[in-house]
UniProtKB/TrEMBL annotation:
A Pfam family it matches: BKACE
Source species: Tolypothrix tenuis PCC 7101
Keyword Transferase: yes
Keywords, ordered alphabetically: Metal-binding, Transferase, Zinc
Name of this chain's protein: 3-keto-5-aminohexanoate cleavage enzyme
GO molecular function, one term: 3-keto-5-aminohexanoate cleavage activity
Length: 307
């Protein structure tokens, strides 16, 4: 093995997208678990998902939906579990973190990592054919007051935070929270690039990636993802520059590859890494790289709960 750290691959499973373009996009807990296992078998070490209505796919934040997924993943894999926060439309911080805290006292079921988006942005989609935005008033709101409240909860309960940043200003904001002692010094920086229909995020360019990297504190790890766009180009840069990669149908349908499931998408990134001379991290290696504690083995208590 070369001297580079093994590549951490995160699977971003279902976000708020629907399955019109790809039926492999999961809604129900059983479907989400299926995709988690596929991703894990292909080389993913982190798994991120959103709670969805099993039939309609409508966003839902029921604790039971998350608990079923966590149990299934723990039973079948050693993935790093990384659910979303509750949806931003839930104004109360307690509502956004309820599903994470519900399992926090269980050493096996507890969530490994929780994401925090470090700023607000306009989320109106662009229609390149009509040369118009489809809406003109959609805003993803993350006030600093809300960020402070969420980070205080995570600090109190010793929950590892991934720092999701849609531009360099959000990275600077996150570093301010590090100076406040609310964002841990050890965090995984997730750089969000966006495709053509979502111009509010960072464009997929090498200078854009380099601007993100310049803000990463020494010793911290970073990865790239592309929301509503193809991550492959920026993934190749991240692999060669020592970063990590997230991919999934929650971000983009990848119809140029047909109708791939998550195992196939993760395998493409793993093969790219091997071609570029970099090994792929196991979940245990990823925990070590991210300076996270090792996971305890699945217990008889969990087996009894699942069965």
């Amino acid at each position: 093995m070369n001297n580079e750290l093994p590549l951490i691959i995160e699977c971003r499973c279902n976000e708020i997208t629907n399955r019109e373009d790809n039926p492999a996009l999961p809604y129900s807990p059983k479907e989400i678990i299926r995709e988690a296992v596929r991703a894990w078998e292909a080389g993913a070490s982190i798994f991120h998902w959103h709670g969805r209505d099993p039939e309609s796919g409508t966003p839902r934040n029921d604790v039971e939906l998350y608990l079923e997924v966590i149990q299934g993943i723990r039973e079948q894999t050693d993935l790093i579990i990384h659910p979303t926060l509750g949806y931003i439309t839930q104004n109360q911080v307690e509502d956004r973190v309820r599903h994470i805290l519900a399992v926090n006292d269980d050493p096996v079921l507890r969530v490994d990592m929780a994401p925090v988006d470090f700023g607000s942005l306009n989320v109106d989609f662009w229609n390149p054919q009509a040369k118009q935005f489809t809406t003109y008033d959609q805003v993803y709101v993350n006030t600093r007051e809300n960020l402070k409240a969420v980070l205080e909860v995570f600090k109190k309960h010793n929950i590892y935070v991934s720092s999701v940043c849609w531009d360099v200003g959000q990275m600077r904001t996150a570093r301010c929270f590090q100076e406040m002692g609310l964002l841990p010094k050890e965090t995984l920086w997730e750089f969000v690039f966006t495709g053509e229909v979502m111009p509010a995020g960072a464009a997929v360019t090498l200078p854009g990636l380099q601007a993100f990297i310049a803000e990463v504190p020494a010793g911290n790890q970073w990865l790239v993802l592309c929301w509503n766009g193809d991550v492959m180009r920026v993934a190749s840069w991240a692999i060669t520059l020592g970063g990590h990669v997230a991919i999934g149908l929650g971000d983009y349908a990848y119809t140029r590859f047909g109708k791939p499931h998550h195992g196939e998408l993760v395998e493409m990134v793993a093969k790219m890494a091997h071609t570029l001379g970099r090994e792929v991290a196991t979940p245990a290696q990823a925990r070590e790289i991210l300076k996270m504690p090792p996971r305890p083995a699945v217990t008889e208590k969990l087996q009894a709960t699942v069965n």
